[in-house]
Amino acid sequence: MRTLQVLSNRAGQNARVPRVTVFIPTYNRAKLLPHAIRSVLEQTFDDLGLLISDNASEDETPAVVASFDDPRIEYVRQPENLGLLGNQNWFLTQVETDFALILGDDDIVYPTLLERTVAEFDRRPRVGVVHTAFDLIDEHGEVLLPDVNWTYGLDRDCVESAQEFMTESMRWSCRICASTALIRTAALPPDRMVEADFPAIDFGLWLRMAAAGWEFAFLNDALAAYRIHGLAQSAASGGPQGPGYVQGIEIVSHLKDIKLDVLAQNDGRLSDVERLRRLAEDARRRELVIMARNLTLPERKPKPTFRALARVVRADPAVLLGAPPWKLAAGSILGPRAVEWLKRR
To answer: Contacts from 60-67 at CB under 8 Å and sequence distance 24+?
Structure first.
């Protein structure tokens, strides 16, 4: 392990630059960080470097990293907390390797993730990101849900064109688990991640890469594990539930704003922009109803259901023009047994 003050210190070391850098931004995650580090070092693809940027942690993080004796590890302790966005952009503005993976300090990658994703890049020069399915695990590493993917419909290995990825992202918002996503660094936009997108900084990044014409490859094998727990950064947008976190009205609305901003910035480059805008508006209404549905699980009793729907309607009265909120309301009145009977009929 080498301890560096800045990433550019590599320049004078005359070391060969590997093809992949795995970057782990970390802060006060000493208990879970070893699992992330170990999973990178156990990759079957070994032409890699592991850069760990400690965001001025106040726990045992330095000792945890020092316990790994591996020359591929570089450790940087930031003099102050740069925040999530600052820490990731610190890396993205300096990375020298062909490919980069930003791995959450509470997540893990399975041994063949880099081997599989780099091979996909080598076959497809117009692909900017290769991402995969994953297992959902709890804070103890137990699998809660196997073979999860957030693509809303992809069930095989495939490549989405830039237009296809953009269209589906308008329909469904973020479809990539960032800890599975290997990035071609040549495809990174000049502004990298943008503060206005926070906390959905990776979502905005994917959209700007698609707007620039890069394709997205998906591998339908679980090649990583995404850990869901109450202290995760993603939990700031909503509590843990199912294959992710329950999104609140604010983040649902913010995701729509990110979409519309990217469309506005690329109006002359993208085709059928007006249709994409309509898809983004429709997606917000659908996601608001999904939010209301998730907030009433598992009992789906009438009172909390109607309370959740009232919040949704206040946020966007046009939600009532579609069938989903009415179905949700009717289901809460009839009860789960009656709803199942109607579905069977």
So the answer is: 60/30, 61/26, 61/27, 61/28, 61/29, 61/30, 61/33, 63/30, 64/30, 64/33, 64/34, 64/37, 65/1, 65/33, 65/37, 66/1, 67/34
CATH number attached to the domain at 1-105: 3.90.550.10
Distance of alpha carbon 109 from alpha carbon 111, whole angstroms: 7
Beta carbons of 114 and 45 less than 8 angstroms apart: yes
Hey, where are the domains in the chain? 1-105, 109-259, 260-344
> What average pLDDT does this structure show over 241-247?
50
What pLDDT score was predicted for residue 9?
A: 41
- What dihedral do alpha carbons 41, 42, 44, 48 form, nearest 10°? -10
Q: Would you state the structure tokens that stand for residue 38, as one six-digit string?
A: 């170990």
How confident is the prediction for the chain on average, in pLDDT?
89
pLDDT per position as a tens digit, 148-204:
999 999 999 999 999 999 999 999 999 999 999 999 999 999 999 999 999 999 999
Dihedral sign for Cα 226, 191, 82, 50, please. Answer: positive
Same-fold call for 1-105 versus 109-259: yes
3-state secondary structure string, 196-249? HHCCCHHHHHHHHHHHCCCEEEEEEEEEEEEECCCCCHHHHHCCEECCEECCCH
In the prediction, which pLDDT does 85 show? 96
CATH superfamily of 109-259: Spore Coat Polysaccharide Biosynthesis Protein SpsA; Chain A (3.90.550.10)
